[in-house]
Amino acid sequence: MKELVLDMDSSVSETYGEQEGSALHGHFALHLFIILYSASTSFGDVEGTLLREGNVHSARTGRPYSNRLSPVIAAQEIDCYFRGDAAFANPDIYEYLEGKAFCMAIRLPANDTLNKMIEPLTVRPVGRPPEKPQVRYRDFAYQAKSWNCPRRVIAKVEWHRGELFPRIGFIVTNLSRSAKRVVRFYNQRGTAEQWIKEGKNAIRWTRLSCHTSWITR
């Protein structure tokens, strides 16, 4: 194996009764646990999970979990990649991955500064829109106040026929490949999301009935 691609994501497990660590989540309007998953598209499987209380942030304990994998990764002497959604857009995670020589592609929430930097791309194209979406890319250096250094950000703007506003997405990355290829690489994390859905719906691995448990903090 020449490379290792880790996709990290979180999902919920609905709880019933008085289960330790369960909490009411306002977004889902359910009592639940939040479970952190790490999947490897290189191996084609879910590598591990962490059970967490229902009131923690989606990305919490992602770094300690990655610490457990680091000795294995170092021993393999392979190229390592990390993909995560906007829940992992955290400077502490960026610095950790960079320190471990990971290449990363993480979704970045939009803000006024980022939107201003791509204003030319958000002007509606002239003429009758084609059937296929019109896609524009731009990459630039950006540094948020909480970041210790500037980082490369990829912007993707899609104009779809029949829609008034464009669909806009940002990715923070240290990959050197073209903007289009970075977006394509990031979108492949959807494979890991499908594995999680299969596990929840087909195997029902999130149905936890015990009242007491050991929960990673």
Question: Which features would summarize this protein structure in a list?
Answer:
single chain; 217 residues; alpha+beta; nine-stranded mixed sheet; 5 helices; 9 strands; 33% strand
Report on the architecture of this protein.
The protein is α+β, with helices and mostly antiparallel strands. It has a domain at 1-85 and 189-217. The chain has five helices and nine strands. It has helices at residues 62-76, 91-99, 112-117, 179-187, 190-203; strands spanning 3-14, 23-25, 30-40, 45-52, 79-84, 102-108, 134-142, 151-159, 167-173. Strand 7 (134-142) and strand 8 (151-159) form a beta hairpin. The chain is globular and about 60 Å long.
How would you summarize what this structure contains?
With 217 residues, the protein is an alpha+beta fold. The chain contains five helices and nine strands, in the order E-E-E-E-H-E-H-E-H-E-E-E-H-H.
Class based on secondary structure composition and strand pairing: alpha+beta
Main β-sheet description: 9 strands, mixed
N- and C-termini, Cα separation: 33 Å
**Ranges with pLDDT <50 over ≥5 residues?**
none
Instruction: Quote the average pLDDT.
Output: 81
What's the gyration radius in Å? 19 Å
Q: Which descriptor suits the 3D outline?
A: globular
Count of helical stretches? 5
Q: Beta-strand level of the residues, as a percent range?
A: 25-35%
Reading the helices and strands in chain order gives EEEEHEHEHEEEHH
Q: Estimate percent helicity.
A: 10-25%
Total beta strand runs: 9
